[in-house]
């Protein structure tokens, strides 16, 4: 089913999804767009596929029969830093997307997205443009607002975000287009997606020791 | 008596019995106190060195000479000329001459001039304390050794008397100084130092009580006692009127102090027990005032005569009144204060009686006056008692304040607990409300769509209709989940998500979504915005977009978000316009459920009404315009849906 041969210029995608119809649907859309797609139904299959060759893009569901997609994302991020990772989500809810972002994912794909949108999203991702939805932006910026008790949902450290990045997130959350945001903030329209990828990277918590180091750097912990 | 006042039939008899049962033991106790006081007075009578007593004297008075034995009373005199002269003698042996010898006069009135072998060695008139008839001042004088000779020595005592009291000369003691001095010291301690000490205490208490009265004007009891004490102090420290030397009218008026003081003490007792001061009670001050006026205007003997005739009986009367008042108070109140005061009054009364008996020579005595001393002691005791009461009241205030603080804290705790309960209840109610709404929202959208998917599948329909229904169901699920998020009253955050969904919905149909926000802020903030408001508004917008896709065959859909300044403040407006073919709005409005579009329009109207928003829909051949004007304030209750 998978084509091991990797030719130059062809973008390889590892698609991890346990629901067969969904998997077919996504695979069809991606293959039609000219991508080379390998699929895996379980965490184990995904790991063996990763051992064979590193894909350019990893698309993974979170709930898998033999484990959680979060582990796969973390492993992939550690082993293949060049691989772009996206989480496949049914609803695009903050809970799953944010927890994937904190381990290294740089975007998400809705399971019911139209085939053209699926292909476009992957293409943008490979081009360095991480997609972000208004609700995810909203979730992040609301975490940057100081509040006494931590809000519900996954833990998220927004301390590294710059005011400009937070402004961009506010614009996205309120439904402004990239062009409008760039206009408001005096940026070039092309730089906005790069900012978003930076934001994702800043939200990523690599390891425990790294988190401690960052906390010390940010003055959150005093040694 | 209030406990029996409720039963008038038996009250009189019961009351009398009750009173008697309380009075009799009290009176018996007072009798015991009288006996005890007399015994103590006897026991405390200072003993004198009888070995050196000289009591055989010849008295020369008014030209007559007679032999007398001391102690001796002379008649009352008003002139200092030719005072009674007592001549006696004492023996001095050679062995005695080695030590210093003294003359010791334990008691005399009013003044003495003592000469040994014709040389005057003591004149008590120069000693103010000694001139007080009420103070039993002793005198001692060292006899210069040059005056003494072996064998018989002569001693003469000139007794100055100023009436109306009779003159008195107690036994004279002549002997070695070391033998006489201790007796003198003992008497001086009792009758000179102790009164001064009491007066000093009185002065201090007077200041304290005066301050208390100044700070608590509604309690005149402190003021009355302070005045009585001040009078007593002035009387004690100012020199008394002494005839031969300077005569001061101010000193003379001080004779009035005793009756006025005693009257004040009666006033104090009445106030202390909380009774009304009777108007005729002021008569009690009359004797004191009379003596006072006499002291101001008349010559020396009159004030003293008046004092003896009016003042002393007044003091006695006042003491008797005090005894009656305290006895009544004891019967009525049965408390420690009245009881103690009653006992103190009985002691002073006994001392006063003792002095009276002494003055009138009814009782064999040495004319030792003790009333002033006992009175001072009583005043000091009362003052100390009042101060104690004041301090106790302060303690009560403290503990009351403490109790108050504790109670306030308790009430606070209760309030807090009830507040927490109330809050939890309100939270639970809000949660239940929210759950109900969520269920309704899921039922409205998702439920119906899933059912239509089931129905379509069962009919074997595999076309685009199932896809549409499933997509609608997913969209609605996302809407409900999205609206649950806390957006902090900023509707723009909900519209941002909706824009993505709408764009995704329009993209397959090649319809462009033109999104315009006229101001950077977008829409005004609505802190009262609740998830169900958001759902209603987004569904209105969804309906409008769906109509544009399904029925109007539009190529462009534009969404304009703006904030308008109205007369009553800012309100947001969302406009959705398409360039489709529109639909015959006015004609079809009356036709119920004639089509999906009409049902959709009705739904939109009712949703807008539930949010307090105004929905205007205009449709023509050039397109459809939906204008949703948001309210100034979103309603708290979903009244229209109930």
Q: What this model shows, in words?
A:
The complex is a heterodimer of chains A (223) and B (642). Chain A has 223 residues and is of the alpha/beta class. Chain A has helices spanning 20-32, 43-52, 69-79, 94-102, 115-126, 134-144, 163-173, 178-185, 191-203, 208-217, and strands at residues 12-16, 36-40, 57-61, 63-64, 67-68, 84-89, 108-110. In chain A, strands 2-1-3-6-7 form a five-stranded parallel sheet, with helices on both faces. A two-stranded antiparallel ribbon of chain A has the order 4-5. The N and C termini of chain A lie far apart (54 Å). Among the domains of chain B are: 53-187, Galactose-binding domain-like (Jelly Rolls); 216-369, no CATH class; 485-641, 2-Layer Sandwich (Heat Shock Protein 90). Chain B is 55% helix and 17% strand. Chain B contains 15 helices and 18 strands. Chain B has helices at residues 2-5, 8-44, 177-215, 220-237, 249-253, 257-272, 286-297, 301-333, 336-359, 371-458, 464-484, 491-506, 531-550, 585-588, 596-610; strands at 53-54, 56-61, 64-69, 72-76, 85-92, 101-105, 108-109, 111-116, 119-123, 139-143, 151-160, 166-169, 172-176, 512-517, 556-566, 569-578, 614-620, 623-629. In chain B, the strands form four sheets. A six-stranded antiparallel sheet of chain B has the order 3-2-5-11-8-9, with no helix packed on it. In chain B, β17 and β18 form a beta hairpin. Chain B is rod-shaped. Chain B starts with a helix and ends in a 13-residue tail after the last strand. The A-B interface holds A 91-94, 112-114, 116-117, 133-135, 137-139, 142, 151, 172-177, 180, 184 and B 470-471, 474, 477-478, 481-482, 485-488, 490, 492-493, 495-500, 504, 507-508, 515, 517, 520, 522.
């Amino acid at each position: 089913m998978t084509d091991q041969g990797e030719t130059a210029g062809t973008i390889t995608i590892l698609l991890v999804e346990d629901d067969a119809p969904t998997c077919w649907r996504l695979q069809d859309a991606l293959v039609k767009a000219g991508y080379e797609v390998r699929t895996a139904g379980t965490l184990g299959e995904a790991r063996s596929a990763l051992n064979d060759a590193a894909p350019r893009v990893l698309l993974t569901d979170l709930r898998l029969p033999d484990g959680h997609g979060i582990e796969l994302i973390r492993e992939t991020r550690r082993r293949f830093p060049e691989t772009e990772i996206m989480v496949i989500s049914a609803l695009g809810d903050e809970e799953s997307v944010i927890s994937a972002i904190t381990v290294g994912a740089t975007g998400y794909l809705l399971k019911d997205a139209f085939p053209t949108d699926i292909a476009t999203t992957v293409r943008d991702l490979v081009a360095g443009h991480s997609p972000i939805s208004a609700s995810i932006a909203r979730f992040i910026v609301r975490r940057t607002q100081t509040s006494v008790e931590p809000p519900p949902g996954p833990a998220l450290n927004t301390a590294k975000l710059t005011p400009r990045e937070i402004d961009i997130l506010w614009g996205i959350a309120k439904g402004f287009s990239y062009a409008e945001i760039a206009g408001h903030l005096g940026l070039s329209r092309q730089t906005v997606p790069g900012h978003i990828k930076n934001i994702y990277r800043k939200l990523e918590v690599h390891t425990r020791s790294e988190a401690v180091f960052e906390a010390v750097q940010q003055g959150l912990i005093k040694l | 008596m209030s406990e029996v006042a409720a039963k008038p039939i038996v009250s009189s008899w019961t009351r009398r019995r009750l009173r008697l049962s309380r009075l009799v033991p009290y009176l018996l106790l007072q009798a015991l106190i009288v006996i005890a006081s007399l015994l103590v007075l006897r026991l405390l009578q200072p003993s004198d060195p009888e070995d050196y007593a000289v009591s055989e004297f010849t008295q020369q008075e008014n030209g007559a000479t007679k032999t007398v034995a001391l102690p001796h009373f002379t008649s009352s005199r008003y002139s200092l000329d030719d005072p009674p002269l007592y001549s006696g003698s004492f023996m001095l042996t050679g062995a005695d001459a080695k030590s210093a010898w003294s003359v010791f006069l334990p008691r005399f009135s009013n003044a003495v001039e003592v000469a040994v072998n014709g040389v005057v060695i003591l004149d008590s008139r120069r000693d103010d304390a000694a001139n007080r008839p009420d103070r039993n001042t002793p005198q001692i004088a060292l006899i210069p050794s040059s005056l003494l000779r072996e064998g018989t020595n002569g001693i003469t005592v000139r007794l100055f008397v100023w009436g109306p009291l009779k003159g008195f000369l107690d036994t004279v003691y002549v002997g070695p100084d070391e033998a006489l001095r201790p007796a003198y010291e003992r008497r001086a301690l009792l009758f000179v130092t102790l009164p001064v000490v009491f007066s000093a205490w009185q002065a201090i208490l007077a200041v304290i009580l005066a301050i208390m009265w100044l700070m608590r004007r509604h309690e005149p009891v402190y003021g009355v006692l302070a005045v009585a004490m001040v009078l007593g102090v002035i009387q004690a420290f100012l020199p008394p009127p002494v005839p031969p030397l300077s005569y001061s009218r101010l000193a003379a008026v001080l004779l009035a102090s005793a009756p006025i003081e005693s009257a004040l003490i009666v006033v104090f007792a009445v106030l202390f027990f909380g009774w009304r001061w009777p108007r005729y009670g002021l008569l009690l001050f009359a004797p004191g005032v009379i003596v006072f006026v006499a002291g101001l205007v008349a010559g020396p003997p009159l004030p003293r005569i008046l004092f003896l005739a009016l003042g002393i009986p007044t003091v006695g009367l006042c003491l008797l009144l005090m005894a009656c008042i305290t006895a009544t108070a004891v019967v009525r109140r049965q408390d420690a204060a009245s009881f103690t005061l009653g006992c103190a009054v009985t002691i002073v009364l006994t001392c006063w009686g003792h002095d009276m008996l002494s003055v009138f020579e009814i009782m064999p005595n040495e004319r030792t006056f003790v009333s002033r001393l006992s009175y001072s002691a009583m005043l000091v005791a009362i003052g100390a008692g009042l101060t104690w009461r004041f301090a106790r009241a302060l303690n009560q205030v403290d503990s009351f304040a403490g109790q108050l603080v504790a109670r306030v804290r308790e009430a606070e705790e209760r309030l807090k607990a009830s507040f927490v309960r109330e809050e939890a209840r309100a939270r639970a109610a809000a949660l239940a409300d929210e759950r109900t709404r969520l269920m309704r929202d899921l039922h409205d959208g998702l439920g119906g769509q899933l059912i239509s998917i089931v129905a379509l599948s069962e009919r074997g329909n595999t076309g685009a209709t199932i896809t549409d229904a499933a997509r609608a169901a997913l969209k609605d699920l996302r809407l409900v989940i999205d609206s649950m998020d806390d957006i902090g009253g900023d509707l723009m955050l909900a519209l941002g998500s909706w824009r993505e969904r709408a764009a995704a919905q329009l993209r397959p149909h090649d319809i462009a979504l033109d999104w315009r926000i006229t101001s950077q802020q977008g829409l005004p903030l609505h802190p009262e915005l609740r998830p169900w408001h958001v759902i209603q508004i987004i569904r209105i917008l969804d309906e409008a977009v769906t109509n544009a896709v399904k029925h109007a065959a539009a190529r462009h859909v534009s969404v304009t978000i703006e904030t308008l300044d109205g007369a009553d403040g800012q309100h947001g407006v969302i406009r959705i316009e398409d360039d489709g073919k529109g639909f015959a709005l006015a004609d079809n409005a009356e036709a119920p459920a004639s089509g999906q579009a009409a049902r959709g329009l009705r739904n939109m109207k009712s949703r807008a009404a539930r949010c307090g928003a105004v929905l205007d829909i205009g449709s023509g051949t050039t397109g459809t315009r939906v204008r949703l004007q948001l309210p100034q304030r979103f309603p708290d209750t979903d009244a229209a849906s109930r």
